[in-house]
Amino acid sequence: MNLKWLALAAIVLLLLGCTQSQNPQNPDDLNSDSNSPGNPDVNVPVDQNQDQNVSLTGFVSVRVVDENQSPVTGALVRLLDANDSQEIAQLVTDQNGFGLFSDFAFLDVNVLVGDQNDSVFESASQQVTVDGNEFVSFVLTEKRWARPPSGSRTTARTVQADDSEFYPLQVQVPKGSILVLTLKVRTFNVAEGGLIFRHPLIGDVYLDANETKTIWFPVNDDVRIESFWPDSNVNKTFLPVYAIPQDWR
């Protein structure tokens, strides 16, 4: 009987010895793996002097203001890869004109204010250092948001144009409404180079033949959108936009 207990005790001791050899308790042994990746290096050197590019690791902070340095709320800001111009992310600025791209690990990016296709914003940018942190400040030369303010009344219309007239010939919009206007240049009766559409509220909008762009502006009074040949001050035709009473049927 005693021999059986001694044999069992020997087996238990043997098993305990194997377990300790597979799970070392020495903290130095736990960190002795020379192939362990360890913590990633977060202090990646960054070149801050690239041409009009933002080269930050981890975040990009932006602020959009108008020519009077007042913050612009609701400005669409897009983060693009500088190498292939692919969009990485986008945001809309808050009531203070600020926006923050975070949770990224990137180098060499461009920041674009507004929609690249619709040329919503004309802006100038510069890198600014505040408390040792780089961010990009944009000054808008025209007070236009990237999209109509939320909750606003909008009226959508689509028109086509060539070098002689618009189709339809006019647009009627309830007074105080925001006109969301889709412009299209027809492929025939258009000189090579497309057309330019002009109005103080939208600036110059250039379209190639068979190209479509969407613009928007508030209609508080009657206005007209003029069309020009590219590189010419000769007005070809115009589209009247009439502001009609809200209760008009």
From TrEMBL:
Source species, domain of life: Archaea
Spans annotated as Disordered: 24-48
PROSITE patterns: PROKAR_LIPOPROTEIN
Polar residues bias: start-end ranges: 24-38
Protein name: Uncharacterized protein
Organism name: Candidatus Iainarchaeum sp
